[in-house]
Amino acid sequence: AQKVTQAQTEISVVEKEDVTLDCVYETRDTTYYLFWYKQPPSGELVFLIRRNSFDEQNEISGRYSWNFQKSTSSFNFTITASQVVDSAVYFCALRDTGANSKLTFGKGITLSVRP
Amino acid sequence: GAGVSQSPSNKVTEKGKDVELRCDPISGHTALYWYRQSLGQGLEFLIYFQGNSAPDKSGLPSDRFSAERTGGSVSTLTIQRTQQEDSAVYLCASSQPRLAGYEQFFGPGTRLTVL
Fold first, then answer.
1. Is there a contact between B65 and B79 (Cβ–Cβ < 8 Å)?
2. Tens of pLDDT along B21-60?
3. Which residue numbers of A have CB closer than 8 Å to B's CBs?
4. Are residues B14 and B115 in contact, defined by beta-carbon separation less than 8 angstroms?
5. Are B77 and B69 in contact (CB under 8 A)?
């Protein structure tokens, strides 16, 4: 069975601090996709990144970076120099390659960035 | 707009009443998903439609829940004889599996409150 664990439930930081959101996954598939979504207070899920299981290169996009390590089944997300606008709930998700391609989500991490 | 739209944005109903929630996917997207986001449960998959294939209903929590998709586009999620535990945000997502690596685009959700 697919499982995504986001052990941190709430994180509070002061603006300009760096923060890392952890994600650990379980799957029996050899091919799979990992995602991060952001859910700001408005409620709509915003896609941040997709990573397939064959690509272990880390990725950087502005202040965001992602560290994918198959050896530890982790796909962690780091925000550098956090800003108040980063305050949101962040979800890690796993998509299998089965017929329905549904996403299995972690329970989310609530990030609060204080000015 | 070009995104996934859902209506109503908020719905308050009395226990025992039936409700219908609507989702308009992105034009051209053949895959449509319903998820439920409730406190303490995170985001849970409910049902998946792909083209003209039979839907995957494996995530529906009970036979009070049903969904249909007309003409391969708009979808309606129906909850009969609503219960208080049905209170949640119901999210719809669509994707075009042959493009963009199966990324799912989410709508703003319908917040359902059962009194």
1. yes
2. 999 999 988 899 999 999 867 899 999 998 888 889 999 9
3. 33, 35, 37, 42-45, 47, 50, 52, 91, 93, 95, 99-108
4. yes
5. no
